[in-house]
Design brief:
2 copies of one chain form a homodimer. By secondary structure, chain A is α+β, with helices and mostly antiparallel strands. Chain A folds into 3 domains: 117 residues, 3-Layer(aba) Sandwich (D-Maltodextrin-Binding Protein, domain 2), CATH 3.40.190.10; 84 residues, 3-Layer(aba) Sandwich (D-Maltodextrin-Binding Protein, domain 2); 86 residues, Alpha-Beta Plaits (2-Layer Sandwich), CATH 3.30.70. The first copy, chain A, has 13 helices and 17 strands. In chain A, helix 11 packs antiparallel against helix 12. Chain A is elongated and about 65 Å long. Chain A starts with 5 loop residues before the first strand and ends with a helix. Chains A and B meet through strand 4, helix 11, strand 13 and strand 14 of A and strand 4, helix 10, strand 13 and strand 14 of B. Chains A, B: Pathway: Amino-acid biosynthesis; L-phenylalanine biosynthesis; phenylpyruvate from prephenate: step 1/1. Chains A, B: It comes from Aspergillus indologenus CBS 114.80. Chains A, B: One of its GO terms (cellular component) is cytoplasm. Chains A, B: It holds the Pfam family PDT.
Chain lengths: 329, 329
């Protein structure tokens, strides 16, 4: 019998990363919470997990720098870790209480004695809180799911948490109000990490990951490459970026992080788009060859299938998220 | 008699921004603390202050996203705000107590009952704390200078704060130990903001700012420009960046932030270097003209004199910070 796939996610249990792991890998996978971003990278590097899933970017707040710094990997700790997939998760918040504590009635909200959530979530639910729960005591906790856990263990007080439906189900809480966030399109992008030396990627078979490892697919691919350029050569960064264009790759994202090698020297993390064709099959290796001529350091960090498809309603901040099957048609 | 220059800085009193303001503008300026990054921008836009000084980047932690988001200015609130200078401040921490409470003796440290500082400073003083203050209760506060203030008002307990020499002087505290940070080169870059419509910049006369407004200087200049590119045109970002190179400007920094206009669409903030010569006098206007052809939006955010001069010891993470006079020679 085949071993279940081991996937580590950024904990605690019932976190948004946990939800992303279930949506990507299904619930038959062996899902293991880890306590930090670095632990997720180490688990993949040391083959304690087959995959890791961690947040890398939010549509409102931007990049998650902990993930960028680990991908930049200045000390070469995670040489075998590559990105092999991505998953988009829209962040919806709910007002959660213990079952039977409250009626789903706005009037009854007023007797809530204390609210728990992650500091960022207060700002994300401003309109709802201002209208319904003004003046209620607020307690910051380290994650929204931690707040749900605290409320689930409450014995005497009538407290509530702001957390996901997923956390409500996990901790057996009642959903008093759903989708209480101000911005219904606040979305987090997660990256799926794999060990390039392990044999997992070629044999697995599930939605998103299948798409990224199927050779010859025509879906749009994303590639991530990191590099450092000499500080004293004018135009070095522009030269490096031009190489992507020369090989037909459309730059979609550039992040710079302190190199940790020298102050004010940066590691650049560049992501590009390419629709594979017979003509550009060697584009990525061509880019890497070109970058070696103009950079001090460059590293390939993986290629995977783009899971983001812009909606046709170009005016609205609205996107449809694809499934592996759909994008492979 | 001329009015004193009004400079707002990111408070509280005795913060690193306050220190940067004193080092840049001198103590004769009218220095006004503000409570948020947005307040600093608003004060300049509304001419309630002549200048603002705010952190934009740290050599270890990278960009300060609050500053980037305000420079990106998606709602056009700060149309007159430009960058006119920069200041580098090396972050040194001290162990501070009330005068007379302790002897400057490591043995005596053990009777400290509680330590106060900003969460980030614990990690920056790890070696010293592990060696000298292991197990002492730690209390997070909103800034290192706030910790110094709390200790200065202490009446019964023998508490200590980790904060700057500047905060010690401001709050009348004793320095038990100086430069207790692990990394002696951890440096923050501050930007000086000015209202481009006000007449302050052309008439002021002090170190750094003088350098940036003197026409015809030969010091290396930095220019900041923001832009958005169409998402659906392949190579649009590379085309935009190539324009900087074409006009002889060396890209030194690229940051991308969510545009807030549409999910996964970015505002790029690009900084470039140029040593002014008679041949490239029109480089910046040439770049802006070129960008208008290939971007959806672009905005000039200022030109100022580079205050960072790399040391000749290229191996070491060590830099010499220049003074306005020096760089103008």
């Amino acid at each position: 019998m085949e071993q279940p796939i081991r996937v580590t996610f950024l904990g605690p249990i019932a976190s948004f990363s946990h939800q992303a792991a279930v949506e990507t890998f299904g619930s038959s996978a062996d899902l293991l919470p880890c306590v930090s971003f670095a632990d997720a990278f180490a688990a993949v590097q040391e083959e304690k997990a087959d995959y890791a899933i961690i947040p890398c970017e939010n549509s409102t707040n931007g990049s998650v720098v902990q993930t960028l710094d680990l991908l930049a990997d200045p000390n070469g700790l995670y040489g075998n870790v590559k990105v092999c997939g991505e998953h988009y998760l829209t962040i919806h918040h709910c007002l959660l209480t213990r079952k039977g504590d409250f009626l789903p009635d706005q009037e009854d909200y007023k007797s809530i004695s204390r609210l728990y959530t992650h500091p960022q979530a207060w700002g994300q639910c401003d309109v709802f809180l201002e209208k319904n729960l003004k003046g209620v005591e607020r307690q910051d906790v380290s994650s929204t799911s931690k707040g749900a856990e605290i409320v689930s263990k409450e014995r005497s007080e009538r407290t509530a948490a702001i957390a996901s439906r997923f956390a409500a189900e996990h901790h057996g809480l009642e959903i008093l109000a759903e989708n209480i966030e101000d911005n219904a399109n606040n979305t987090t992008r997660f990256l799926v990490l794999v060990n390039a030396q392990a044999d997992r990627p070629a044999t697995v078979d599930f939605n998103h990951i299948k798409a990224s490892v199927t050779p010859g697919g025509t879906a749009q691919k994303k590639t991530l490459i990191s590099f450092m350029v000499p500080q004293d050569r004018a135009g070095a960064l522009a030269d490096a970026l031009l190489i992507f264009k020369t090989h037909g790759m459309n730059l979609t994202s550039i992040n710079s992080r302190p190199s940790q090698v020298k102050a004010w020297k940066y590691m650049f993390l560049v992501e590009g788009h390419l629709t594979p064709t017979s003509l550009n099959a060697d584009a990525v290796s061509g880019i890497l060859h070109g970058l070696k001529q103009v950079t001090e350091y460059c590293r390939y960090l993986g290629t995977w299938t783009d899971q983001l498809v812009p909606s046709f309603e170009d005016e609205a901040v609205q996107y449809a998220y694809t499934h592996g099957d759909l994008i492979l048609q």
